[in-house]
Write a structure and sequence with these properties.
By secondary structure, the chain is α+β, with helices and mostly antiparallel strands. It contains seven helices and 14 strands. A seven-stranded mixed sheet has the order 1-14-11-10-13-7-8. A three-stranded antiparallel sheet has the order 3-2-6, covered by helices on one side. A two-stranded antiparallel sheet has the order 4-5. β2 and β3 form a beta hairpin. The longest helix is centred in the middle third of the chain and has 12 residues.
Length: 236
């Protein structure tokens, strides 16, 4: 079985070709690993200082305590609004569930309900998504449902386009406040050279994009037969 090249070996390849171990000659981008991107932490996936903001097409469960007719499941429309009995249209986009509950209480207060107690729970969200871009048939945002891998993410976007560079697939990810990028080879994954990496919410996947190629230009030129992911760190 083919062994993965080590960082020292990659550095040797670069030095032999006259290329720097710092990509593009910039001290802000360096190779830090060839073993795969680390998993994001809980803070990376769900930042406690960033409350969830309701957006278009989110599904909510709204309960008005003691009034069954006003308790219902609703879906936010494309413009970020919802229609609620008695009070009509409410601008929900950009509000937290708690803020929306207080807005509904305010509108129901006195005129319709003496002392309304409203709770709003998020039933389904489009916030847990990945971005698939570049040379795929249907680039865009896709929800992460259960465990998803790079190959599944590309397949979800309709697969690669006719002229996609399968050895030039980059995953961008934030981990512990640092931005990382990993270079992957879909052909090598299909051959079983290494495992299909898992992807997570907020990952950005770019297939065969020229900007992604420039990022790894030195490494690609030094070793065109790379069969293992290359991970770099963007330093602030």
């Amino acid at each position: 079985m083919m062994q993965r090249p080590s960082i020292l070996f990659l550095a040797f390849l670069l030095s032999a070709c006259g290329g720097p171990t710092i990509l593009g000659g910039s001290p802000d981008v360096t190779v830090v690993s060839s073993d795969g991107l680390p998993e994001p932490t809980r803070v990376d996936l769900l930042s406690s200082n960033r409350p969830y903001l309701i957006g278009p097409f989110d599904k909510l469960k709204i309960d008005v305590f003691g009034i069954e007719d006003l308790s219902k499941d609703v879906q936010i429309d494309a413009s970020g609004r919802l229609s609620f009995p008695l009070i009509g249209v409410v601008e929900a986009s950009g509000l937290t569930p708690g803020e929306l509950a207080r807005e509904l209480e305010k509108r129901l207060q006195g005129r319709y309900v003496r002392d309304p107690q409203v709770t709003v729970n998020l039933e389904e969200t489009v916030s847990q998504v990945i971005t698939v871009d570049g040379q795929v048939k249907n680039p865009g945002l896709y929800p992460v449902i259960g465990s998803m891998t790079l190959m599944r993410a590309v397949a979800t976007s309709g697969g690669t386009s006719e002229f996609a560079k399968l050895n030039d697939v980059v995953i961008f990810r934030n981990v512990n406040g640092e931005q990382l990028a990993g270079l992957y080879n879909l052909k090598a994954i299909r051959r079983g050279a290494y495992s299909d990496p898992e992807v997570f919410a907020n990952d950005v996947i770019v297939v065969g994009d020229s900007q992604a190629r420039r990022l790894f230009r030195d490494l690609i030129q030094a070793s065109p037969l790379i069969t293992t992911p290359l991970i770099i760190l963007f330093r602030n």
